[in-house]
Write a structure and sequence with these properties.
The chain contains 19 helices and two strands. It is an all-alpha fold and 494 residues long.
Length: 494
């Protein structure tokens, strides 16, 4: 597929997004930008959240990770499912009862000013890094397969991508995203479905045959239970998946902001449950696609593309889709899926960062009415510029598979949120709010030190995703240490 054709495709897709933004952003109000007027149909939110959760990381990095990890990522995904149940029945009732715009307002009501800021800052760092991971992955694909041919610098590619996202979210915010995410999810699913179909056709196989035969042998092992020391042991992956979901969905303003646009708690819970089932099935299809990509590459002697002189498995899917004999339909749907993946994760991240910064740090709801709209628009621009800078930095420092890197970062940044919310919901104790930042910082430093311990000093034990719950536990214990001893415990836990 020629770069010029890809640009035309991006242009057409962007026009479609602008049309949706026009109809959803007519009011240009903060109420619609932050909460979509709390009128979003739950089934629309559920379908759109599939695409937002998958993002470019799942779309490209998960299939590319199959050769190194086989289907072990499914162990984490099964943990995700349990995490979604916890989010639906433990966290959502709290948010709806408190009627929050930013979920970190709960921490202000429960503990006080410092806890609120610590929670919001933890999210802010987490979401900036998470969004940058996702945008970086899509940007390097666009760079290698489109803009390098025209000698366009990577920095310009990133700036252009984020500028387009800013344009169609600047008025409608979350109200626009609820609807654009449904379109983006559809394109992603069509892309993976057609890619599987055409690769199977080229290999002379059918889907049922692939699943029931040894065609994927060497790629399709899901459960790893032999060595508890291994990073991919089932128990570690499954438990890690639970805590990753609770934190990266239930304690994340980006994902919860969509849920909070539903009119009632019951609708939000229906959204969460249906979305979680679909996500497990779709992720499995991505794993199957990954195995087929490597089979196809071997059969046709296709090498894994290089980045900075080293093989980059994340680029195998685009290499096969765009530069081999699978046909123009696969190329077109791949690019639509990739663009959808880029926008579905980045647009919601940009909106949630804007929301959190306005509500949690600037107290926008306490400002005079005439200042609020201008302030939100200014912050929206600032968040766009920040993402551009971080993605560009990633190009020079990132040397790991993106999905693995994203989950590792979560272990550091989401731990304090896990500890704070757990302490708030499951105890009636109050804490000395002014010391909460010390507890959170100490916990992160301890986790970082633990992560640096070589496996040989731990009897061969490889530290993996268990860093996240351990971080939350350290925070919880630290909050116990600074609890108030006076008889003024919190009465309304939920």
């Amino acid at each position: 597929m020629q770069p010029f054709h890809i640009i035309l495709l991006i242009g057409g897709y962007f026009i479609l997004l602008l049309a949706i933004a026009y109809f959803t952003g007519k009011k240009d109000s903060n109420t619609d930008f932050f909460k979509a007027g709390k009128r979003s149909p739950w089934f629309v939110v559920a379908f759109g959240m599939v695409g937002a959760s998958l993002s470019g990381v799942t779309f490209i990095s998960v299939p590319g990770w199959v050769e190194a990890s086989q289907f072990s990522y499914m162990q984490v995904v099964l943990g995700y499912f349990v995490g979604y149940l916890i989010t639906a029945y433990v966290l959502l009732p709290v948010y709806y009862k408190q009627n929050v715009t930013s979920i970190y307002e709960y921490l202000a009501q429960r503990f006080g000013f410092v806890s609120h800021k610590v929670g919001a800052l933890s999210f802010f760092i987490s979401r900036v890094l998470g969004a940058a991971f996702r945008l970086f992955l899509v940007a390097i694909v666009l760079q290698q397969f489109v803009f390098d041919a025209w000698n366009v610098p990577f920095e310009v590619t990133v700036a252009l991508s984020i500028s387009l996202i800013w344009i169609y979210t600047k008025k409608g915010g979350i109200k626009t995203i609820v609807w654009t995410d449904t379109l983006q999810t559809l394109f992603m699913l069509v892309s993976v479905g057609l890619s599987i179909y055409f690769i199977l056709d080229e290999l002379g196989l059918d889907f049922i045959q692939v699943l029931s035969s040894d065609a994927l042998e060497g790629y399709d092992k899901i459960f790893f239970t032999d060595d508890i020391n291994a990073k991919n042991h089932f128990l570690k992956s499954f438990l890690g998946g639970i805590f990753i979901t609770v934190c990266m969905t239930g304690l994340d303003q980006d994902m919860m902001q969509k849920n909070l646009t539903c009119n009632t708690l019951k609708d939000a819970q229906k959204n969460m449950l249906s979305f979680s089932v679909v996500l497990v099935v779709v992720t499995f299809l991505f794993m199957v696609l990954g195995g087929l990509l490597f089979l196809y590459a071997k059969a046709n002697q296709i090498a894994v593309p290089l980045m900075n002189g080293t093989p980059k498995s994340d680029l195998l899917f685009p290499e096969i889709a765009l530069n081999t004999g699978l046909g123009s339909l696969v190329a077109v749907t791949f690019m639509l899926g990739l663009i959808a993946a880029a926008y579905s994760s980045a647009d919601s991240a940009l909106t949630s960062l804007t929301t959190s910064f306005c509500v949690d740090f600037l107290g926008i709801e306490k400002r005079p009415e005439r200042q609020r709209l201008r302030l939100r628009k200014t912050v929206h621009i600032g968040m766009s510029l920040l993402l551009i800078v971080v993605v560009i930095v990633f190009k020079h420092v990132l040397d790991t598979n993106v999905i693995d890197g994203l989950l590792q970062v979560a272990g550091f940044t989401y731990g304090p949120l896990l500890g704070l919310f757990s302490f708030g919901i499951f105890t009636k104790l109050q804490v000395k709010d002014r010391y909460v930042w010390v507890v959170a910082l100490t916990s992160v430093v301890m986790i970082f030190c633990i992560s640096q311990i070589p496996a040989k000093f731990l009897g061969g034990y490889q530290i993996g995703y268990e860093l996240l719950p351990l971080n939350g536990l350290f925070t919880f214990i630290g909050l116990l240490a600074i609890r108030k001893t006076t008889n003024n415990s919190y009465k309304n836990v939920t």
